[in-house]
Amino acid sequence: MAKVKVTQVRSIIKRPKDQKATITALGLGRINKSVVVENTPQIAGMVRKVSHLVKVEEA
After folding, report:
1. How many CB atoms lie within 10 A of CB 28?
2. Hey, what domains does the chain have and what are their CATH numbers?
């Protein structure tokens, strides 16, 4: 599987609990924090759910 770099670019203040939990599950939590993860269907779904809060790049 390909790896993707996910970077949080917006705050999770005043966001629903499910979006906050998704950000935490991705290993994020602070603006400009990045993680490199495998691009599995589960990760793709999580990224899609919080796509307005993160930036995704090929790693």
Report:
1. 21
2. 3-58 (3.30.1390.20)
Residue 49 host element (H or E): helix 41-49
Burial of 21 (0-12, 13-18, 19+ CB in 10 A): middle
Q: What is the mean pLDDT of residues 31-37?
A: 98
Model confidence at 26, pLDDT cuts 50, 70, 90, reads very high
| Range 35-56 average pLDDT | 98
Phi, psi of 3 (to 5 degrees): -100, 145
The strand pairing partners of 7, in sequence order, are 34, 55
